[in-house]
Amino acid sequence: MTRKEKLLEKIKRNPWDVSFEELDKILRHRGFKCRQPSKGSSHYTYIKGDVRLTLPKQNPMRPVYVKMVLKAIEEAED
Predict the structure, then answer these.
(1) What's the pLDDT band for 22 if we cut at 50, 70, 90?
(2) Total domains, the chain
(3) How far from 25 is each of 18, 19, 32, 37, 40, CA to CA, in Å?
């Protein structure tokens, strides 16, 4: 199992203790392109095909955002 796979499993097991950087690593590894926030914004947009995801940069990430990321990864791989 690679480090990225282990990280993804850790995130699935405990969505309460996840940093923005961990989600960013997973999304980029899965092929999502990141668009930096515009001036005055703290939200990053990730795009892969028809799947679009917007995340605020905060630590720790709220579980609702972690679940959105996991669902987006599933949708993008189908």
Answers:
(1) very high
(2) 1
(3) 12, 10, 10, 17, 23
